[in-house]
Amino acid sequence: MSKLLKILALTMGIACVAIGFAHIALGNDSVPDMADAGVTADSQSRFFGAIFVGYGAAWIWAARQSPIPAPAIRWLAGIFLLGAVGRAVSLAVHGWPHWFQIVLTVIEFVLPPLFFWLATANEDRVLSGHEPLAPSRSRSGV
User: Fold this and answer.
1) Can you tell me the distance from the alpha carbon of 31 to that of 35, in angstroms, rounded to the nearest whole number?
2) CA 120 – CA 140 distance, rounded (Å)
3) Alpha-carbon span 73 to 115, nearest angstrom
4) pTM above the 0.90 mark?
5) Could you give the CA distance from residue 61 to residue 77 in angstroms, rounded to a whole number?
6) Which one of 4, 66, 94, 115 has the minimum C-beta count within 10 Å?
């Protein structure tokens, strides 16, 4: 359970960091159907790209802890789920977006429950004594 959680959390973090840097580098061109959205949308896309890099770094930080902190995973997954809710609101208000955004919305609704379940299962395993604790590290995780 903990190995799967670690792999998925690391994958999530690396993907978010890569996506964030793509938004910083490409701006509107990083999002389907937004190439002509204008300067303000480009600025916002690049700004949110930086935020997404930080979000991905938080996933990587959590995945590197031993044991993996379930509350951190739950918070990060909850934020991801909130993004899916935002997309659903947009769909209700403005209609169907580009097909790729629909794929992302499905992923954003499916992954959080998986992370909630894995975090709880891993936490229960650690608390029951079935998961050995790694040697302690400094608070910075280094």
Assistant:
1) 7
2) 24
3) 7
4) no
5) 14
6) 94
Q: Are 56 and 15 in contact (CB under 8 A)?
A: yes
Cα 49 to Cα 137: distance, rounded to the nearest angstrom = 31
In terms of Cα–Cα distance, which of 69, 81, 27, 72 is closest to 50? 27
- Assess contact for 84 and 18: CB atoms under 8 A: no
**Contact criterion met (CB below 8 Å) for 62 and 70:** no
Is residue 100 scored above 90 in pLDDT?
yes
Question: Could you give the angle at the alpha carbon of 137 between the alpha carbons of 131 and 142, nearest 5°?
Answer: 120
Q: Is the pLDDT of residue 3 over 60?
A: yes
131: left (phi over 0), alpha (psi -120 to 50) or beta: beta
Both tokens of 51, joined, read 């935020």
- What's the pLDDT score for residue 133? 56
